[in-house]
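Predict the structure of GntR family transcriptional regulator.
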Amino acid sequence: MITIDPSSALPPFEQLRAQFVEAVASGELAAGERLPTVRRLADDLGVAPGTVARAYRELEASGIIETRGRAGSFVSLDHDPVRQQAQRAAAAFVEKVRALGLDADEALQIAAAALRAGA
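Done. Here is the predicted structure for GntR family transcriptional regulator.
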């Protein structure tokens, strides 16, 4: 359960951010779980919506949560930074392959050969 301690030296947005990180790390919040809307959480905690929005932005920047437009914010399905970098590299590879006009099968063969060669 997320709470704000008004007597804490930590700003409220940082308290929120830290508690969400802890909840995700402990498994209390599971991957893919939907988070409350900014307004609802702000109302529940008695803080300004901007406080919750800032915490959510920082959580998203660190890969802990992802925002899916109007669908809302969710615990990231994969908050492993190494895996995220690999996914970004794969997306860049796909973009380049498409620009070159190669089909998916040929691109996969090229990638598999590069991985086997240690490139």
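Residues 81-117 form one domain.
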